[in-house]
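Q: A small favour: would you put together sequence and structure tokens for a protein?
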Amino acid sequence: MKTKHYHNTNGLDPITARLEAKKNLRQEDIIYTIFKDSCFKRLTASEVWEYYKVAKNIPLTSIRRGMSNLQKEGILEKTKTTRIGIYGKPEHFYKLSQLKFNEEKNTTEAQERIR
């Protein structure tokens, strides 16, 4: 199943819809970077939103969509652990997938060997 990065629920023309999808891909790149660079091993959507909104105002629902897409792509894993989020409801923690973590580690080690 292909991940949808933009859901064209408001009937945008195809070019605008494609531009929105590209913008959402950039959001997912930023979410991935937050996980990769965070000193915390696990984060909820609200926590990612707190990091993200420092640089840019974005709805929490966009963060959740991005995290769900990254989970579908095997980059993030949803844990069974929850915490009460900013709206008083439980939110799951997510973490970098072990497979992705190992790929990153191997890539870094290979780059260091080349130097």
In short: The two ends are 39 Å apart (CA to CA). Residues 14-37 form the longest helix (24 residues). The mean pLDDT is 79.
